[in-house]
Amino acid sequence: MSVTIKADFSRLDKKLSAGNFKRARQVLANQVGADSNQFVPMGPPNEGALRDSQMIAIDGSELSWNKPYARRMYYGLEGWNWHTPGTGPRWVERAKGQYVDSWLKAYKGGLNL
C-alpha cells in the first residue's frame, strides 16, 4: 500500500517573500519611530529639532535621529536634567518596554500573517 501526499506551499511562499519581509520592516520601523519619538528630548539647543530629525531608511532597515548631538543625547550622562517630562536617554529602549507587543503585531501585519 502506498500513500501519496501533495502539499501546496504557494500561499506560504508568497507570504514569506522578500517583498513581504521588506514591507514588514518598513511597517515596523515606522511604528518604532512613532512610539519612540515621544521619549526623545525636545531640546535645547532647538526646541523639537531632534525629534524632527528622525530618518527611516526606505527599506526600513535603519531608524536614526540625525543631529550632531543625537548620540550624546541618546546615551546621556548621569545627572543630566531632562527639561521635557517623560523624555531622556535611550528612548528606543524606553519605548520598547511599553510597545514591544504592538511592534510584533505591526511586523506580523506587514507580513500579512
Keywords:
113 residues; 50% helix; single chain; mainly alpha; 5 helices; 5% strand
What do you see in this structure?
It is a single chain. This protein is mainly alpha-helical and 113 residues long. Helix content is 50%, strand content 5%. The protein has a two-stranded antiparallel ribbon with strand order 1-2.
The unreliable regions are none
The CA-CA distance between the termini, in Å, is 38 Å
Mean pLDDT: 88
| Strands side by side in the biggest sheet | 1-2
Structural class: mainly alpha
Largest sheet: 2 strands, antiparallel
Total E-strand runs = 2
Q: Total helix count?
A: 5
Residues in helices, as a percent range: 40-55%
N-to-C SSE string, H for helix and E for strand: HHHEEHH
Rg result: 20 Å
Which term fits the overall shape? elongated
User: In percent terms, what proportion of residues is strand?
Assistant: 5-15%
List the helices and strands and how they pair.
Elements: H1 10-15, H2 18-37, H3 49-52, E1 54-56, E2 63-65, H4 70-75, H5 91-110
Antiparallel strand pairs: 1-2
Helix pairs in contact: 2-5
In short:
With 113 residues, this protein is mainly alpha-helical. Helices cover 50% and strands 5% of the residues. A two-stranded antiparallel ribbon has the order 1-2.
